[in-house]
Amino acid sequence: MQGEERRNRLLQILTQSKHPISGTTLAKELQVSRQVIVQDIALLRANGTEIFSASRGYLLPQAGCKRIFKVFHSDEEAEEELTSIVDLGGRVEDVFIYHKVYGVVRADMNIRSRIDIRRFISDIQSGRSSLLKNVTGGYHYHTVLADDGQTLDAVQEALQKKGMLAPLQDYEPVDFWNHANGPAPTPFPHS
Prior knowledge:
Blueprint: H1 3-16, H2 23-30, H3 34-46, E1 52-54, E2 57-59, E3 65-72, H4 78-87, E4 91-99, E5 103-111, H5 114-125, E6 139-146, H6 149-161, E7 187-188
Parallel strand pairs: 3-7
Antiparallel strand pairs: 1-2, 3-6, 4-5, 4-6
Helix pairs in contact: 1-3, 2-3, 4-5
């Protein structure tokens, strides 16, 4: 199988999956090394295809709506925050911070279920790493995906009721990314 044909097949596999697929699994399916998969993913991204890298593999973004929420909570409330989002039908695409020196520092999360939340919390509690929000005193952002705007409104209301939403400050940029595929999602709430 030639490179372009392989990359088309790779996209087809990712398009048909609603869950992350590991590089190893893709390599076996396409009968190439994992390094070839990494290079193919890089080429696809360079050509404008949005592909997320999660701890469990690669994933294409799902259709629907997205909204950025700026939030603030303690380490102990991280599970409650994520559970509030997924229980209402939201999917946590990422976590990012805005650092006054480093700018935007972002990590893919792709949390879609309580199982994903348990794995994430377990990894944090194991001491492998700490929450990214701690770099900025607890303030951070999540891009949340949902099938419709009403779901995002419900997520926003739930986070507001829990006192977890935080207003944007004047120094924070509204456009966190320069999207080639359209405008960036609107951060909520905005003060």
